[in-house]
Design goal:
Mean pLDDT: 85
CATH class of one domain: Mainly Beta
Structural class: alpha+beta
InterPro entries: NA-bd_OB-fold (IPR012340), Rep_factor-A_C (IPR013955)
Strand content: 25-35%
Radius of gyration: 17 Å
Pfam family, one: Rep_fac-A_C
Number of strands: 6
Protein name: Replication factor A C-terminal domain-containing protein
Distance between the termini: 54 Å
CATH topology of one domain: OB fold (Dihydrolipoamide Acetyltransferase, E2P)
CATH superfamily of one domain: Nucleic acid-binding proteins
């Protein structure tokens, strides 16, 4: 057992890069189990028929399937004072930086195709205080961002900057 390594750590860091190609994933709106993407070429594809978006688990208990929803899963490189490493930020923490839900961001990105890339560029260089935790899943590759606090006093979430930019 790793008794000498803490499960969580809080540190000051800078955002080096954000992977803007896969910012979100689809889940069942009832049980939040991950659903497969309908378009394998593009993670930000639009939802198709309810058959392809139905949760196999919930569908057995609830024949009236609801629409899936999206949650953030943001892969990003951050730099502390000693090293650069890749972390994954899920929905709760990502909402702080993006300022909206993944569904709202997805809908905005459908209207403005380069908004995900623009948001990623806007977040580069931001100073953050993050709390990281080791993944509970043994197969996970990256530490998870449990909480994030922007350190710049004039910080604006990405969606605010995008709405101003795209009008």
């Amino acid at each position: 057992m790793e008794g000498d390594k803490p499960l969580t750590a809080t540190l000051m860091c800078t955002v080096v890069a954000v992977d803007h190609t896969h910012l979100c994933y689809r889940v069942c709106s009832l049980c939040e189990k991950t659903l497969p993407e309908t378009d394998k070429n593009n993670n930000t594809s639009s939802s198709s028929s309810s058959l392809s978006s139905a949760c196999k688990y919930c569908n057995a208990f609830n024949p009236v399937s609801s629409n899936p929803k999206r949650l953030f899963r943001v892969l990003m490189s951050i730099a502390s004072d000693t090293k650069v490493f890749v972390v994954v930020m899920f929905d709760r923490a990502a909402r702080v930086l993006f300022g909206c839900s993944a569904d709202e961001f997805f809908d905005f990105a459908k209207l403005h195709p380069f908004s995900a890339e623009t948001a990623a560029k806007a977040l580069e260089g931001e100073m953050l205080r993050v709390t990281l935790s080791k993944p509970k899943n043994g197969n996970a590759q990256h530490q998870r961002v449990v909480s994030v606090v922007p350190l710049r006093s004039g910080f604006r979430p990405a969606i605010e900057n995008l709405r101003e930019l795209y009008g």
